[in-house]
Amino acid sequence: MTSSSTSGAPRSPDGDRGDLFDPGCPTRRLLDRIGTKWTSMAVKVLAEASPEEVRFAELQRSMTGISQKMLSATLQGLARDGLVGRRVEATVPPRVYYRLTPLGLTLEEPLAALREWAEAHMAEVDRANRRDEAS
């Protein structure tokens, strides 16, 4: 953490702004947890369904290309971080339902902003990559 910051910048509870180069930085820790495409997709699907719950199989169908193992690991991580709630019905086979917690719902807006940025600018990024590959 560092004590210098820009006015109006978010601060940690101790008043310091995070330093992305510090492994303890809140932003870095968050990006380590949610920085995968599968995590952002799961949050999006669950946010769109909110306040309803979504079954595992429905999540997997919505997230084209994700394996059962990867979806399970993604949901376990989100649940461990308090972003996703899980409910199991004691049927045979068990039915498992997922929903965003109130904390998880607060993540939808920043992820939506990132998606908007991507839609507005990825064509430019792709052009830059093609120019670089051609040189």
Q: For the terminal residues, how far apart are their CA atoms?
A: 40 Å
Task: Count all strands and give the number.
Answer: 3
Low-confidence stretches: 1-12
Secondary structure class reads mainly alpha
Most strands sheet: 3 strands, antiparallel
CATH fold-type name: Arc Repressor Mutant, subunit A
Give Rg in angstroms: 18 Å
Spatial strand order of the main sheet: 1-3-2
Overall structural domain count: 1
Mean pLDDT: 87
Number of helices: 5
Which second-level CATH architecture applies?
Answer: Orthogonal Bundle
The geometry reads as globular
User: CATH homologous superfamily - what is it?
Assistant: Winged helix-like DNA-binding domain superfamily/Winged helix DNA-binding domain
Order of helices and strands: HHEHHEEH
Strand content: 5-15%
Short descriptors:
3-stranded antiparallel sheet, DNA-binding
Description:
- It holds the Pfam family HxlR.
- It comes from Streptomyces hyderabadensis.
- With about 140 residues, the protein is mainly alpha-helical.
- The chain has a single domain, classed as Arc Repressor Mutant, subunit A.
- The protein contains five helices and three strands; from the N terminus they run ααβααββα.
- Strands 1-3-2 form a three-stranded antiparallel sheet.
- The longest helix is centred in the C-terminal third of the chain and has 33 residues.
